Amino acid sequence: MASPVLLNPELAEKLVRALESAQEVKRRHHFFIWLQGPFNALVPHTLPVCGAYQRQTRELVFEAFNNEYLPAATLAALTDSAAPTTTALARLWIDRGGRPLAVSLADVPYPPPGADREKLNTAGLTHWIVHGVARPFRPSDIESLFLFAEKADGSMAERLTMLELLMPHLHTIYQRVQVLERELRGPASGASPTASHLSKMRDTGRSQRITERERQVLSLMRDGCSNQQIADHLTLSALTVKNHVQSILSKLGASNRAQAVALAIATQLLDV
């Protein structure tokens, strides 16, 4: 049995901050920012993939909240219905008793390595932390499952302990976000948030430099959409979206997408 992780004052403060800020998470973009901020401070990761059971289709539906550019084929290897890798990680989590686990894809016994596994290896997404929530006494009935591409540095025991402590809150937050987003979209729409989520033009130095199209891209970045999802929504090519993202990062002086979104909200380029 692994040794328990004692919470030092710094870690305890981060945990309290994450739990307090979790109460304000209601929309998808809130969730994305919370994952990249307070949660990431406790469970460092490079890519979160979140799955929730959809009773209409009777399956786990996954989505990636990507902070860096990833090819559409790589994201599909994690989020497509019945994607072999996510299915294998879910099965491994069940087999390990529904406990938080850290695993290398090379050690996942099923399915046999294939094209999807190679895409993830090429992207450097080889090591994962996995945990979720299943129905009581029915471990195969998963309600939610969270996959985090791990960073190599730091204490893995500490991350798994933090994930165990945060899981009830993470599950509740994600379920709340799912319900609210469905209600706001309405029963007939499954589309990503539209330009109605864009903020009004703000007469600031930075907003004068951000074009309306870039503001639309920012709005979808705020919701954790990939470049391909943004391209599909705005009827653009993925390369054009990539150029818009690079332009936004340059204009805002941001080093990544999450920082760009945070700066855009802080400077009122986007509504929260």
Task: Report on this structure.
With 272 residues, the protein is α+β, with helices and mostly antiparallel strands. The chain has 2 domains: 22-185, 2-Layer Sandwich (Beta-Lactamase); 195-266, Arc Repressor Mutant, subunit A (Orthogonal Bundle). 50% of the residues lie in helices and 15% in strands. The chain contains 11 helices and 5 strands. Strands 2-1-5-4-3 form a 5-stranded antiparallel beta sheet, with helices on both faces. The chain is globular. The model is unreliable at 187-208 (pLDDT under 50).
List the topology elements.
Elements: H1 9-22, H2 28-42, E1 45-54, E2 59-64, H3 72-79, H4 84-95, E3 101-104, H5 115-122, E4 127-135, E5 138-150, H6 156-185, H7 205-209, H8 212-222, H9 227-234, H10 238-252, H11 257-266
Antiparallel strand pairs: 1-2, 1-5, 3-4, 4-5
Helix pairs in contact: 1-2, 3-5, 8-10, 8-11, 9-10, 10-11
Number of helix segments? Answer: 11
- Shape verdict: globular
Highest-level CATH class of the largest domain = Alpha Beta
Rg, rounded, reads 19 Å
Terminal residue distance = 43 Å
Which properties best describe this structure?
15% strand; Beta-Lactamase; 2 domains; five-stranded antiparallel sheet; single chain; 50% helix; alpha+beta; 5 strands; 272 residues; Arc Repressor Mutant, subunit A
Kindly summarize this structure in a few lines.
With 272 residues, the protein is of the alpha+beta class. Helix content is 50%, strand content 15%. It has two domains: 22-185, Beta-Lactamase (2-Layer Sandwich); 195-266, Winged helix-like DNA-binding domain superfamily/Winged helix DNA-binding domain (Arc Repressor Mutant, subunit A, Orthogonal Bundle).
